[in-house]
Design brief:
Blueprint: H1 2-26, H2 29-43, H3 47-55
């Protein structure tokens, strides 16, 4: 029984990770997140955002 108790969670985790990758690929969620992160980084180059960050001594966020 000990072997079965270890195998079942590993199989469930593998299925979950495979389905998660398929879903994010199928609906292009990964690509959308990359585009949004690129937009966020490019907005940080605007003078008004730079001034706001400097005024409040806030470090700009990095894209993940």
């Amino acid at each position: 029984m000990n072997h079965l108790e270890l195998t079942v969670p590993l199989v469930i985790m593998a299925i979950f990770l495979a389905l998660r990758e398929f879903v994010t690929w199928y609906w292009k969620i990964n690509r959308l997140l990359n585009v949004l992160e690129d937009i966020a980084v490019s907005l940080r180059t605007l003078p008004s955002v730079k001034a706001y960050d400097d005024y409040f001594a806030r470090e700009p966020r990095k894209a993940a």
